[in-house]
Structures are given as structure tokens and as C-alpha cells.
Specification:
Blueprint: H1 14-18, E1 30-39, H2 43-55, E2 61-64, E3 80-81, H3 88-95, H4 97-119, E4 132-136, H5 146-154, E5 161-163, H6 165-172, E6 179-183, E7 187-188, H7 191-204, E8 208-210, E9 217-219, E10 224-227, E11 231-240, E12 257-266, H8 270-276, E13 283-286, E14 292-296, E15 302-307, H9 329-338, E16 347-357, E17 364-368, E18 371-378, H10 388-399, H11 425-444, H12 452-458
Helix pairs in contact: 2-7, 2-10, 3-4, 11-12
Length: about 450
């Protein structure tokens, strides 16, 4: 296994720093045993543990987390909560109409589950279901949502409404985007609060968690052995839920690519935001190829993120994936385009994180080819808050050998997925395509048409 490079305290996300998130459980020491070992203490690992406990309360489950629960993608993301209905066309193409509908509806149910956890005082996560907006701020972006919107309507699923410029201005306080759609039962969350809340919930259910315990090696077998720096854990079954770091596993590497996403958080600016009318908790995306996403926090900071497509050779995730090399300047430029009123508001935090991607932009679940007791959940493509509870159901069914709609769903099995080019072609090609996408975005945002070569190279992105 390839242990992650832990982010320094100052490189942690605003979400994590604002609540002082850190490890609360001891590292693995000595020799221990369990029924199910889970590698990774983020959303996918925690939800898998909770779903297994729902069906098998006596199961002995141990989570090994390299840093602390939520320190990876689960505590670094943009805090946007929306269902899989935004990807229903891609799901339909991959798994068929019936499974696509089942999975989309399950993510909508997961949003209601999150609301119930908050309403019942179990997890305080700052969940605000004020809508998720998918918008266009240039002519090239118009209609990016059409496939998903039209398919939903043809299937009788009224999950989106169209918005005009006045609607968007009223909800966001910005005139940069002028057309789009909204998923009403969606919104924003404080992702680090959700992660540490899930950690506490798992502990209360009897799940054993060892933080600061990166897994250095897994020895397969009927009883697998997981070695850390200070201990060894024996397990009948193993779940790999370590996000982008699973790209180091040779069997999975051909299907995965890792890119960076960069996020900034401003100083509190509630007075300005209130003045321009941005008072709600909606999440907003615009349809650039390197997607832009943002929200206003309850205390008046602006969270502004962008998928940058930053990559590394052989997906070696180093410290550059913990913090952007430009101090957030690219995001700041876009922030000032969308909100020129914030030009004098300082940016207090900037951070990055790796995203595990597949060519289909949808996760994949299964077990390693020759190891039927080592399972994996990977490829969330930066969309996981409402999707991880569903992933947990799929993984629980696989681990418990259930024959049900979850274990049979079309996201299980990597064989039908698209393989990516080998190195060094993958790295060189990705660098060329990334530059083309950035040129394309920069031209289109001012309604200029990129040249043919730029358009062609950008079209080669998975």
C-alpha cells in the first residue's frame, strides 16, 4: 500500500481547521483481530461500517485510518449535496434504466437520511437544503444539463426546475450565471462536521477505529493480515475505501486516474453577502469543463472551488495535492469574476485534494480478482456526500454475501469499465489535455470560440 502524505496543520481545509478536527482514537498497536477490516476512515469507510452493523450487529469491524477520520476527501470537498439524478444519463448508459433509477432514488433517500440525522440531534452537520444550482455563465455552457434534465422528465422524475437569470440572481447574489436548473431537495453541508459525526456514530455502534494507522502492507489469504507501523490486524474480510490512494493497487490502476481540486475560503463577509442578496445555503456549480462550485457558509464565508485537473506521474499523490501551488490565485480570479463585490475581502484558507476518477465518472465496487475477501469502493469522481450512504449499502451486501439489488447493481464489477492508457502516455497526454481544457475554459468564459486544436485536445478528456 502507498500511505498518503498527511497534510500539515496549516494545509488542512477550512472545514477541518474551523472545528479543530483531529484524531480521537489511538493508533493500532500489537496484534488484533476482527471480522471486517476497513482501510479508510472517510465517508465510504464509515458508511460501510454503519451499513454492516445495521444488518449484522455482532460483526467485529475495525477501521484503520492513515491520518484521522475526514482528513482526506471527506473533509476537503466543497460541501455540495445533490443526488445522482444529475448523472442519470451516464448511469443509464452504464447500468441500464432500472438500476439508474434505483441508484438515483437511493441518493435522494440518502439526503433525507442526512436530514433526519441532523433533525434528531445525532450529527450536527450544518445541512441546509436550499437547493443545488447547475448553471451556465457563458453560451458554451448553456444546456450542459439537458441530457439529465430531459431523461428525468421522460421517466416521470420531476427533480429539476429551470431557472432564469432573475431566479439565479435572487438565490446567489451574482449575475455571472444567467440560466440553469435547480434540484430543490439538495444543498450544502459542513463536510468535516459530517465526517467526525459519522466517526462518533460508528464508535457508538461498537465499531473499532484506529487513526494515525496507515496500512503499509496487506497479506492476502483466507485470513488477511494488515500491517501498520505499530501493529498487525487479522481480518476475515477487508474493505478498501481509501479514495484516490487505491490507484496504487496494480489491478485498479488501469481504470483510475487522480486529479486535484482546489478550494479557497474567504474571510467572513456576511454584510456584503446580505447586501447583494446571497443569504441562503444553496450550492452552485457552473458548467465549465473544469467545474466551478461554490457556497456561502452560515457564518458568511464564501467557499469557492474548482476542479483543476492537476495530475502526477503514476498517480503518485504527494504534498502538492494538499495545497495549491499558486496560493489559490486561479480560484481568486474566478471568485472576483463571479463576485466582484468581494475583491477587497481576503482569502484566509486555500487547500487541495486528490479525486479518484474513472472514465465513466461513476464509482465502481467489487473484489480483487484473485482475492474474494478483499473488496473495494473507488472512483467517486468528487461526488460523494449523498452517494457514500448508497455505496455503504452496496459494500455491506458484498461483504455479507447478500444476493440483493445492491450486490447485483450495475456499479459492481470493473470488467466493463474503460481502461486508461499506460504510463508514460497517460501522464503526458493528461498534461496536454489539461492545458487545452484551461485554454478552452478561458476562451469560452468570455464567449470566444477556442481554436480547433484546443477543442479537439480538450475533447480527449475521459
Amino acid at each position: 500500500m502507498r500511505p498518503p502524505v498527511v497534510a500539515a496543520q496549516g494545509d488542512r481545509s477550512f472545514w477541518l481547521q474551523s472545528i479543530g478536527a483531529d484524531a480521537v482514537t489511538p493508533p493500532l498497536q500489537g496484534t488484533q483481530a476482527c471480522d471486517v477490516a476497513i482501510v479508510g476512515g472517510g465517508y465510504a469507510g464509515l458508511w460501510t461500517a454503519l451499513r454492516i452493523k445495521e444488518q449484522a450487529p455482532d460483526a467485529r469491524i475495525t477501521i484503520l485510518e492513515a491520518d484521522f477520520c475526514g482528513s482526506g476527501a471527506s473533509g476537503r470537498n466543497g460541501g455540495q449535496v445533490h443526488s445522482w439524478f444529475a448523472e442519470i444519463d451516464m448511469l443509464r448508459d452504464l447500468v441500464g434504466k432500472d438500476d439508474a433509477l434505483m441508484l438515483c432514488r437511493a441518493t435522494a433517500d440518502a439526503i433525507e437520511e442526512l436530514k433526519s440525522l441532523q433533525d434528531n440531534g445525532i450529527i450536527d452537520m450544518d445541512l441546509r437544503l436550499d437547493g443545488w444550482l447547475w448553471t451556465a455563465s457563458s453560451t458554451a455552457q448553456e444546456g450542459a444539463w439537458s441530457k439529465a434534465y430531459d431523461l428525468c422528465r421522460s421517466l416521470g422524475e420531476e427533480h429539476f426546475r429551470k431557472l432564469d437569470s432573475a431566479d439565479i440572481l435572487q438565490r446567489t447574489g451574482s449575475s455571472a450565471s444567467y440560466t440553469g436548473i435547480i434540484e430543490d431537495r439538495a444543498g450544502t453541508v459542513q463536510p468535516a462536521k459530517l465526517a467526525v459525526g459519522l466517526r462518533q456514530l460508528a464508535l457508538s455502534k461498537g465499531v473499532v477505529i484506529h487513526e494515525r494507522s496507515p496500512v503499509l502492507e496487506i497479506t492476502p489469504g483466507q485470513t488477511a493480515r494488515l500491517r501498520t507501523a505499530q501493529g498487525t490486524l487479522s481480518a476475515n474480510k477487508v474493505v478498501l475505501a481509501a479514495n484516490a490512494w487505491l490507484s496504487a493497487i496494480p489491478e485498479l490502476h488501469p481504470y483510475l486516474y487522480v486529479v486535484s481540486s482546489q478550494v479557497i475560503a474567504t474571510a467572513p463577509a456576511a454584510d456584503i453577502l446580505n447586501e447583494i442578496g446571497w443569504v441562503g445555503g444553496a450550492s452552485i456549480c457552473d458548467a465549465q469543463q473544469h467545474v466551478l462550485y461554490y457556497q456561502r457558509t452560515p457564518s458568511g464565508q464564501v467557499i469557492f472551488g474548482r476542479g483543476t485537473g492537476g495530475i502526477s506521474y503514476r498517480d503518485r499523490i504527494d504534498s502538492s495535492f494538499n495545497r495549491s501551488g499558486d496560493n489559490g490565485l486561479d480560484n481568486i480570479r474566478e471568485l472576483h469574476r463571479v463576485y466582484p463585490q468581494l475583491k477587497n475581502i481576503p482569502v484566509h484558507y486555500d487547500w487541495s485534494g486528490p479525486i479518484d476518477c474513472t472514465a465513466e465518472h461513476l464509482p465502481v465496487f467489487g473484489h480483487l480478482r484473485n482475492e474474494p475477501n478483499i473488496f473495494y469502493a473507488v472512483g467517486f469522481n468528487g461526488t460523494g456526500i449523498a452517494q457514500a450512504p448508497v455505496a455503504g449499502r452496496i459494500m455491506a451486501s458484498l461483504v455479507l454475501a447478500k444476493d440483493d439489488r445492491w450486490s447485483r447493481c450495475g456499479l459492481v464489477g470493473i470488467e466493463r469499465r474503460t481502461k486508461l492508457p499506460p504510463e508514460p502516455l497517460r501522464y503526458v497526454g493528461a498534461k496536454i489535455v489539461r492545458r487545452a481544457i484551461r485554454r478552452k475554459n478561458d476562451a469560452e468564459i468570455i464567449n470566444r470560440k477556442p481554436d480547433f486544436i484546443t477543442r479537439f485536445l480538450a475533447s480527449l478528456a475521459p
